[in-house]
């Protein structure tokens, strides 16, 4: 080596320099390469990443409430679908029949009724009126109540209820903001529905049944309470704000979560945390709805039918509860998908079992004569791309779904798994 030429020594030095650079590059810790941010910027990125994700999780319940409020006011079909089951609920029917009976009996004059039934015995009946009016009043009240029950349990009542709510939906916003009148109104912190059209039907049936004195009952307007609370008047501003935020707040929530994930140093872990945070926030909202139900019922006056009030509450928020379940399932699905795609030991084992089972099935099918032509090799080369396309298609379907439920989210997730399984099965080289 002592007589090596200068050119040889220079070439050997250059080769050693390249090997040293290669070894140094391979020993650099993960995340510390050219793509990693400078050390002094990492705490800042981590702080804002956590902040955005936390704020997004806080916005999840508000977004669900905003979407629910906006849909109930802005979508007539949604509102009608919400209140329609109340017409066929036994507790609500009993409460409506009792209310109608009480109002009708206030306008029936028993003495006038006796005068019409037995005019020839008027002097004697006038003397006996005090003893007879009690039992007779009870009999008339029973007749009115049974007639009212028949009306509220008929298909005609369901149709009247649905048609009336469809017509009055335009005034719902005014009702909840305390303005205007109409069949739905807000007075003394009470949201109520006027039962005058139903009372007219009861009056007509009483007349048809022989109780002609019912024809003299004037037009009666009485309210069936839908919501009663001392806080109704105070939350009207919050209701209006939620209605205005119904479209934008969910978008802001998703954008904040996405920004938090993109800023994170470990994005997959941040995505799992954000998804689980969304699921936890949905659970908090669901628990709050249950707790508020008990508080609301306890605050009602003793004269209010508790069973009917509970049914009305459950019916009005049932679509909100569907949204809660959908957000919870979506959070769990996204978190599970992000974890399974990660480098963790159990995630790798799960993927290994998946590939072994489906790959083995594909190989067995290939041996018995199944041929995919150019599809199999193409899927081998583009399997990752196809997977992302499938996930994106499911996300778009969920985004454009009018009112997704938990079952819709779960169905889309299972569809993605099924398509990916088919891709894994068909992805075979020549």
UniProtKB/TrEMBL annotation:
Protein name, per record: Integral membrane protein
Keywords linked to the UniProt accession: Membrane, Transmembrane, Transmembrane helix
Residues spanning the membrane: 46-69, 247-265, 272-296, 323-341, 384-401, 407-427
Domain of life from the UniProt record: Bacteria
Source species of the chain: Actinacidiphila glaucinigra
């Amino acid at each position: 080596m002592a007589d090596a030429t200068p050119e040889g020594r220079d070439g050997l030095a250059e080769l050693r320099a390249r090997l040293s650079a290669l070894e140094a590059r391979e020993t650099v810790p993960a995340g510390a390469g050219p793509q990693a941010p400078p050390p002094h910027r990492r705490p800042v990125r981590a702080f804002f990443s956590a902040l955005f994700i936390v704020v997004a999780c806080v916005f999840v319940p508000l977004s669900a409430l905003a979407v629910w409020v906006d849909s109930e006011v802005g979508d007539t079909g949604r509102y009608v679908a919400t209140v329609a089951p109340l017409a066929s609920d036994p507790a609500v029917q009993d409460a409506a029949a009792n209310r109608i009976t009480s109002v009708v009996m206030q306008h029936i004059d028993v003495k006038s009724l006796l005068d019409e039934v037995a005019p020839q015995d008027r002097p004697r009946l006038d003397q006996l009126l005090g003893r007879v009016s009690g039992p007779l009043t009870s009999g008339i009240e029973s007749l009115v109540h049974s007639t009212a029950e028949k009306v509220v349990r008929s298909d005609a009542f369901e149709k009247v209820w649905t048609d009336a709510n469809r017509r009055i939906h335009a005034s719902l916003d005014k009702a909840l903001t305390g303005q205007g009148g109409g069949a739905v109104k807000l007075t003394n912190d009470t949201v109520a529905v006027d039962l005058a059209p139903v009372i007219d039907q009861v009056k007509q049936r009483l007349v048809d049944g022989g109780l002609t004195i019912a024809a003299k009952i004037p037009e009666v307007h009485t309210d069936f309470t839908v919501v009663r609370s001392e806080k109704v008047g105070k939350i009207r501003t919050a209701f209006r704000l939620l209605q205005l935020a119904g479209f934008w707040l969910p978008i802001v929530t998703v954008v904040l979560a996405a920004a938090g994930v993109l800023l994170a140093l470990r994005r997959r872990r941040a995505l799992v945390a954000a998804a689980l945070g969304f699921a936890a926030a949905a659970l908090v909202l669901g628990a709050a709805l249950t707790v508020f139900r008990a508080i609301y019922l306890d605050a009602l006056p003793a004269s209010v039918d508790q069973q009917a009030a509970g049914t009305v509450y459950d019916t009005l928020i049932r679509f909100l509860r569907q949204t809660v379940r959908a957000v919870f399932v979506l959070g769990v699905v996204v978190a599970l998908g992000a974890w399974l795609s990660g480098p963790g030991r159990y995630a790798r084992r799960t993927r290994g079992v998946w590939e072994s089972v489906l790959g083995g099935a594909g190989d067995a099918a290939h041996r018995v004569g199944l041929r995919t032509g150019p599809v199999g090799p193409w899927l081998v080369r583009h399997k990752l791309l196809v997977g992302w396309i499938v996930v994106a298609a499911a996300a778009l379907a969920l985004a454009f779904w009018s009112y997704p439920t938990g079952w819709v989210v779960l169905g889309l997730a299972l569809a993605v798994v099924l398509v990916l399984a088919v891709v894994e099965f068909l992805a075979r080289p020549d």
